Protein 1
Amino acid sequence: MTGAGGSSPRWQRGWWTGAQRIRSPNHGPRPVGAAIDLVVLHSISLPPGAFGGDEIVRLFTNQLDWSAHPYFETIRGLQVSAHFLVRRGGHTLQFVSTDRRAWHAGTSAWQGRPNCNDYSIGIELEGLEGGTFEPAQYGALVALLRALARRHPLQAVTGHEHVAPGRKQDPGPGFDWQALLAWPGYPVGLLPGH
Ligand SMILES: [Zn+2]
C-alpha cells in the first residue's frame, strides 16, 4: 500500500498517515504507563442502517444536529469518539491519536481489567449492529491492525459486545471473526479475545 507520495503509511505521534485525519475534541490522557494492548471493534451507523452520510463524523466532532432525526434525539448530548472509523468502502478515518484515550467503550472490562478505554484502541466499522460488513472493510481493518501492531504491544482484538456483555451488542453476529482471522496479512499473534 502506497500513499500519494509513494511512501508507505506511517505513524506521526499516534496519527496514521493511512487514514484521513479529522480531529475529535472527545479524548483525554491515558493513565501513566498504560500499555496499549487491546483493540475494541464497534459498529455504527447514523441513523441506524443509513450509510455514507456525514452524521458519524458530526457525532464524533460534537457537530451533530440532534433535531435532524428522531433517533438523534435519543442520543442528544452524547460526547463520544473512536480512534478510527472504517467506511463501507474501506475508507479509513482517524479522530484521536492512539496515544490518547478515546471515549468508545464506556463501562467495560477485558479479562478482569476494567475501563477498556484506558488501554485500548477503538475502531468503528460503519454498519448496522447485527448486520454484515463489506469485504473492503475487512481488508482495510487488517491493514490498520497491521499498522497498529507495529506501533503498540497489541495482544488481542475483541468486540464491544465482549467487553460490555449485556449492555452492548456491537459489532454483533454479522461480523465474521473467522474471515478476519483468515484474511491475508492478518497480524500473526493478535488473538481474538472473546
Ligand atoms: Zn460500540
Protein 2
Amino acid sequence: MTAGRELQHIPVMREAVLAGLALRANGRYLDGTFGRGGHARAILECLGGDGRLLLMDRDPAAIGHARREFGDDPRVAIRHANFSELGEWEAARAGLDGVLLDLGVSSPQLDDAARGFSFQSDAPLDMRMDPTTGESAADFLARADEREIADVLFHYGEERMSRRIARAVVARRRESPITTTRELAELVERTLGRRERNKHPATRTFQALRLKVNDELGSLERALPAATAALNPGGRLVVISFHSLEDRIVKQFIRGPQAAPARRGLPAPPVAMAPLQAVGRAQMPDAAEIARNPRARSAVLRIAEKISSGGGA
Ligand SMILES: C[S@@+](CC[C@H](N)C(=O)[O-])C[C@H]1O[C@@H](n2cnc3c(N)ncnc32)[C@H](O)[C@@H]1O
C-alpha cells in the first residue's frame, strides 16, 4: 500500500447500478466485487433493517476494508472468494434479488505500485488480485512456452506483435528472469521499437497478462450461470465490463442459447428458454462522468432480469 495515503475507488455509473438492481428495502443482494465499497455503501443506504447484502472480493485487502467498514452491520455478510464460487456460499443459495459484478481491477489495485499491475512504476511483476493463491505474471513468463505466451498476448491483449514479444521474452529469460514491471515494459518497448500516441506500447501486454493471471474471463463465464441460479424469479443481474471480451461474454449469456438454423424440410430444432431477459440496452457513462472519472471511460453496463426459476445456463 502506498504509504500515508488511503487509495480510493470512485464507483462507476452508481445511479444506473442502483436503478438496474431495482432495489427493495427488504431484498437480498450480492455485490461480488466489493473493491472499496462504493456501490455496496449506496446499496446499503437503500436497504431497511430486513434487507441483506452479501459482499465478496478475491482481494484480501478489499475484504479487510469490507470487514472494517461493514463487519458490525447485521444486514451484511462478507466472504473472501472468487465470485465464480458464489454458488458455494449458503447465504447466496438462499435466493437473491440482485447480483452486481463490477468487473476488473479497482483503482487501489492499480495505484498501489507494489501490486505490480502498472508499468507506470517499478515493482515486482505480480498482478494477482488475490496474492495468496495462483501464479504471478512473473511466474507465468518464467514457465510458459513461447507459443502459450504469444497466444495469451494475442487473445487477451489483441496484440498484433504477440509472437515477436513472446520470442523476446523467451530470449531474455535465458539470460535472467523478468521479475519487475519495468523490466517487462522496457522489453516490450524495445521489441516493438516505437512509441504510440497516448499509449505505452506495453499496455496490451500488461492487460493480457492481467486477464490471464487472474483467469478473468473464465471466472466470469462460471459466475454468470451461478448468479442466475441464485437469483429469485424477477431478480436482477447487473454487470459492468471494461473490456470488449468481457462484454461479449455477458451479452451472449444474457441473450441465451440461439436457435441453430433450420435444415430445409425439417422442423426448427428446439431451443432451451433463456433464463434471463435483457432490461434495456447496454449503457455507457456520460461525458460528465468520464470527465470526473477517466477510468470509467470504457465501462459498459448490462442489466438482465430472471424470468424463470429454472436456474443457470
Ligand atoms: C472495479 S473494482 C469494484 C469496485 C467497487 N464496485 C466499488 O465501488 O468500490 C473490482 C473489484 O472486483 C474484484 N474482483 C475482480 N474479479 C473478481 C472475481 N473473479 N471474484 C471476486 N472479486 C473479483 C477486484 O479484486 C476488485 O476489488
Protein 3
Amino acid sequence: MTRRAMVLLGGPDSGKTNFIGRLWSALDARKGALVAVGQPDDIRFVLDTADHLFQGHFAPRTQVTDGRRDFEITVAPAAGGAEADILLPDVHGELWRKAVISSEIPTEWMNELEGADGALLFVRIGSDLNVRPLDWVVSRALLQRFGHNEDQVTLPTQVMLCEMVRFLELSLKKRPDGTNPRLSLVVAAWDAVDVGKFAQGPVAYIKREYPMLAGKLADTQKLEVKVFGLSIVGGDLTADDAFRAEYLEAGMDGHGWVATQEANGGWQKNPDLTLPVAWVLGF
Ligand SMILES: Nc1nc2c(ncn2[C@@H]2O[C@H](COP(=O)(O)OP(=O)(O)O)[C@@H](O)[C@H]2O)c(=O)[nH]1
Ligand SMILES: [Mg+2]
C-alpha cells in the first residue's frame, strides 16, 4: 500500500482540529470522494472532537502543552482504486508560529515535512488571533530584531503564512507520478461570509486580506495550489442559536460543506468534506 503523508498547518485558532474531527465523521460516513478503510488505531482526540460537534459545540482550542497529535488512517477513493495510508499531524498552531519566528523547525517535523507530498494550509474567517497585515519590510526587521525573544513578537498572520509556504516549497517531495506536491489552501468558517463575499469566493478573500500570501502562491513554481472554502457544520454553533437548534434536531450528517470553484468560475457548496484531502492525494 502507498503511504501518503500530508501535513496540516496554519496558525493557532485557524480551524485545524475541528476539521480533523469532522473529516473523520465524513470518511466514516462513506458518502464522499474518499472513504475510510477500517478503523484507525488511536484516534481518541479525533473522537473527542467529533463528540463535541455531535453535541452542538465546536471543539475547544487545543492546549499548547498537547503539542502534536497525529490522525493516521487508511483511505480509498469511493469510486474504487488503490488504498493509501494518510498521516495528518495536528501540530498546535502556536508551535508553528514559534518555528516561523525562530526560523527553526524541530527535526521531528522536518522529517514529517520531507516525507509528505502534500499539505493543507488553514486560515480562518473572524479569528481573534488573526494579526492584521503589517508592512513586510517592517515585519522582517521585527523578526530579526526580536528573533530570539519569540513571545514578544506579534507576528502578522500573513507573514507567518508566507513563511509556512516557504517551508513547504523547500521540503515537500514530488508526488508519486513526478508532479509537484499539492497544497489545499482552506479558508475555514466560510459560513461566516455574506452572500456577496461567498459569490466572490475564497480566492478573492485571500487576495484582499492576505495580498502577500496571494502573490506568493501565484508565483510558486514548486506547488500546485487549490483554494477551498470550508464550513465544518454549515453554520456557527457559537453565535447562531437558531442554526444550532436546527442542527441539533437534524444531526451532523448532511451538515457542513466545502466551497469549490466550478468550471464557469462560480462558487458552489459541496457536501463532500473530504474534497480538500482527496484533491491533495489526486483521488
Ligand atoms: N463558524 C465557524 N466557526 C468555526 C469553523 N471551524 C472552526 N471554527 C471556529 O474556530 C475555532 C478554532 O477552531 P480549532 O479547530 O480549535 O482551530 P485550531 O487551533 O487551528 O485547531 C473554533 O472554536 C470555532 O469557534 C467553521 O466551520 N465555522
Ligand atoms: Mg487545534
